[in-house]
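note to self — DONT lose this again. spent like an hour looking for the file last time. sequence + predicted structure for the chain T wanted, 365 res
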Amino acid sequence: MKKSYYILLTITATAAVLYLLGNWVGRSFGLNRQQVIRNIHEAYGRATDAFEAGQTKDLAAFFRNELDEVDLKRIKFRLDTVPLHGDSIVLKQDLRYFSDYRKLLEQHYTFVCPVNDTQGVHAYIQNLRAGFIGKLLYMFFGTIVALGLLLFAIRKQVDIIRRQDELARMREDFSSAMVHDMKNPISSILIGLKVLRSGKVDSKPEKKEKHFDILEAEAQHLLALANKVLTISKLEHGQLLLDKNWIQLRPMVDELVHTFTAKAEKPITFQVDLQAEGAYADEEYLKEAAEIRKDKDSPVILIKATDFANYKNLIDVLDEMQICNIGRYAIMDITPGDLRLLQDKTHDGYADDLKEVIEYRELKQ
């Protein structure tokens, strides 16, 4: 199943959970409201029964005690005296069903209890909502907090998954680039060793010394790549320790300038413009970060040789890569399309030789 399907499934499930949670809260609120109305009615009924039976003369105190017994201590009320003869007067015998006294209590009134032939009392509930909202308030806020923590945890999980996907993609890109980067120095070292072993440059000390410099540079390149692998491994396992010290930038830049100048056969001039004389960092990794040739966004140079090329031509090209500070290059086989393009750009006898090579390769295929 694709990632988009999982995302859609997660959104649908989250919406369903929120809907069910809202439905549960609404139903709980309604049920609790009905229970509070029923408890108030029954408490007032017991109080009026005791008052009519002569068990108490203080109806308000008895009603208060009955409310406290059913855990309705937050409910506040007052007793009002009303005439018994009126169209809006509702007596206890007039209430047969729950819907009857619920409608009455939703208007904050109880039924009328007669105290004599002409007058009666009923209770006015001042804060009816405190009875059913108060009970659910802590549960409601607890649910909101738990839901918030759940959504926060889901968001963090999504961020972790995204970071893991990004790290996996970076690791794949890094592995691919690392294979190519390690292949090139190894190829250069093997080619240089073959040339040195053949003895073709024994009579040319300067050329021989240049070959040794190239081999040393490629070996240093391999060592740097190996150190990068170890650095990334330490980063992934949280074991990378940086030895932070105050470092003078001028000597480091002068060393880089000297290195690049020594590799160049032609005169080269560097203009150094330092915005700061020093930095608080790890010297080893700061030097690595300062090398332009390791930039991941630098272009990749493809080196392709024809059948007429020799070891000297390839060494010269690799030497130019070092001089120009090209850190990303690859040695590849030349294709027939490359040969035809080269033939079109050539106007001397070499074009005829290329034509023969193309015809020979086509016959072999």
